[in-house]
Amino acid sequence: MAPPPPSGSGECKETGSLVVCFGEMLIDFVPTEAGVSLAEAPAFKKAAGGAPANVAVGISRLGGSSAFIGKVGKDEFGYMLADILKKNNVNVSGVRFDADARTALAFVTLRADGEREFLFFRHPSADMLLHESELDQNLLKQARIFHYGSISLINEPCKSAHLAAMSIAKRSGAILSYDPNLRLALWPSAEAAQKGIMSIWNQADIIKVSEDEITFLTGGDDPYDDNVVLNKLFHPNLKLLIVTEGSEGCRYYTKEFKGRVSGVKVKPVDTTGAGDSFVSGLLYSIASDLSTLQDEEKLRKALYFANVCGALTVTQRGAIPALPTKEEVLQFMLEATTI
Fold first, then answer.
1. What's the predicted TM-score (pTM) here?
2. Quick one: which H or E segment has residue 147?
3. What region, left, alpha or beta, does residue 138 occupy, with left being phi > 0 and alpha being psi -120 to 50 degrees?
4. Do 316 and 269 touch, CB atoms closer than 8 A?
5. Which ranges carry the Carbohydrate kinase PfkB domain (predicted)?
6. What is the rounded CA–CA span in Å between residue 189 and residue 195?
């Protein structure tokens, strides 16, 4: 018999710096053998996934305060995911369970040619069926930062719930943080993806994009050209735009200053979740001290901290299991400075 869905919330630390993450949480199935296609994989290992959920766990691991809002199936996988959040001290009062739809599944592999292959089972899955009426409005009103992606914009009713949640958080004074997290396979077409992702672009206060996403969103422009980023992606309401470059680090753009922070070299084992870990590190720092957005020296320190979070995550398999603690990040930074 299935256990009852978890009630209440995970342990919540200092609520004044709460980061509320909205969107999908799912089960990733990863081949037990590296470098094979999904069809060639002899077996699969399951792992918790979903970018917004990864970010929520990442912030909590660092000692921050986080919550997750989203929907899973009223099934064994849904209970498992909610339990993982609770065990990681993420507030789950915004998690809903759907009795009629399953928890989303994704089969993911990194083939020998370096290409990632995705196969999603969402027809529809529970995360797509979150209704506006199911939102935990009190939780949204407590958010210092409200973080989200674009996958929750693809289908109704979740799209309307997403837009309503943004509106509630914004009216309550939250900073809106957006990581588009492009997954073309989930959108009806490339045009729909570009249009959908850009439809809420100008409402965000913080945006994090990768080089590939810049090329896609600008219709093929050079992602390394500052003018492309500033003219096509920076908007008047934006407090911070981050461009991640994997192991090379990241670039940052604000109205007052711009620059880059170099990356951290490690031996990669699995890059899954590295971007989410970076976002966790950055939002943890900003939620702890909002002046980071106006102070370039503080911002550079926060970005280096975030780069280390991302780097440590690629040294282990899986996203959530590999997310670092604050002690691990500080220890790595200490050792890096003494070498």
1. 0.93
2. strand 145-148
3. alpha
4. yes
5. 18-325
6. 10
